[in-house]
Amino acid sequence: xxxxxxxxxxxxxxxxxxxxxxxxxxxxxxxxxxxxxxxxxxxxxxxxxxxxxxxxxxxxxxxxxxxxxxxxxxxxxxxxxxxxxxxxxxxxxxxxxxxxxxxxxxxxxxxxxxxxxxxxxxxxxxxxxxxxxxxxxxxxxxxxxxxxxxxxxxxxxxxxxxxxxxxxxxxxxxxxxxxxxxxxxxxxxxxxxxxxxxxxxxxxxxxxxxxxxxxxxxxxxxxxxxxxxxxxxxxxxxxxxxxxxxxxxxxxxxxxxxxxxxxxxxxxxxxxxxxxxxxxxxxxxxxxxxxxxxxxxxxxxxxxxxxxxxxxxxxxxxxxxxxxxxxxxxxxxxxxxxxxxxxxxxxxxxxxxxxxxxxxxxxxxxxxxxxxxxxxxxxxxxxxxxxxxxxxxxxxxxxxxxxxxxxxxxxxxxxxxxxxxxxxxxxxxxxxxxxxxxxxxxxxxxxxxxxxxxxxxxxxxxxxxxxxxxxxxxxxxxxxxxxxxxxxxxxxxxxxxxxxxxxxx
Length: 505
Prior knowledge:
Blueprint lengths: L1 H15 L11 E2 L5 E2 L7 E2 L3 E2 L8 E2 L5 E3 L5 E4 L24 E2 L11 E19 L12 E5 L9 E5 L12 E17 L13 E2 L1 E7 L3 E2 L5 E2 L23 E2 L5 E2 L4 E2 L5 E2 L23 E2 L5 E2 L4 E2 L5 E2 L23 E2 L5 E2 L4 E2 L5 E2 L27 E2 L5 E2 L7 H33 L51 H6 L9
Antiparallel strand pairs: 1-2, 3-4, 5-6, 6-14, 7-9, 8-13, 9-12, 9-14, 10-11, 10-12, 15-16, 17-18, 19-20, 21-22, 23-24, 25-26, 27-28, 29-30
């Protein structure tokens, strides 16, 4: 158990009270440097308390936060054989003759019915633990001691009887060092007895070597004062640990303000929640060690939800919901309906290529957009790359008048002019080639049959003529009859007889 408590204590010192190393003035340590070291200054560390544990006189416990408020205080007794102050000098040796113990006197007076010893704590003190160091060289006078806590010194029994030491008459069953719980509040602590525990004396006698009244230093509580409370305002009750204000400093919880916030929470009364990736946040400041929040959260403490309309890691996604905004973590729209131009349950994805509007249900194919690779805007259907010639309006569906200053119209006119010029140039070139071929004789005209009333074209004079191998009709003999052979054809005959055409040479 002691090892466990020491481990908890070290955790408190190093982890909880840490973060101030090198910043506290000499002799101070802990949260906001609010605790004082009660050990040699060389052993006081701003984060590890008093290590090693070598406490100053009057202080004890694993962190030297347990104070003996009776140490070197004013004492008195019913009678004195050895000084009453020896019981608060810090010397716990148990041999009377070492000069470290108190011993009452007048043990020969038969009128003595009681013996008492008293220490003035100098202020109203909440007493909880009292330790008595008895003589080790004589055990008889341990039994029958009563402990009182009083507000005044009027009477040794004027107060609250918080504990009675009982045992064998010879005290052999009572330990040399007796630690008792004696709860009460007062200025004086009194040890009182009416018991005769002597083998040869018939009056009450008291003797013991040291009396300690332990209270916890400010801000600590528990049996060994090794629990630290973090109260807003006054320090906690060093016995119960309860904070008078009922409010803990940021990072702590329960009415004792001793328990750190549960993982994932921080701040006053642990009322804030952090959402860190990896380790949990610091229970006091809320800062995430990783510096990265889980989806849906932002700021260095990761306790602030994404702004409305955003979600996801680092709140980097935007949702476009109809009505309420989307969930800041998942991005899902409560209405499950997106604004025009968006789709999916998170409404963060634009409509697919060629569609737009509510539910991306409108098709851009009906739009008069320019170019095969054009698309309309995913929200309202506007043509992203402009309208075709003769169309205008936000959605390119309206018919427009031709305007020469319109870049699209100018482009169309330029195209027409280019085509016409190309055709004219082509025709001129073809005509020139044809003329050249005819003049050089590489190309001749091809004639069909000569029709009645038409004259046969003369052969081109530049073309060589074939040899005359024909005999004229007048040179041939002829006879009358069915088959007349004519030897000539005079001019008169040509005129009368229209059956013959003139053969031109």
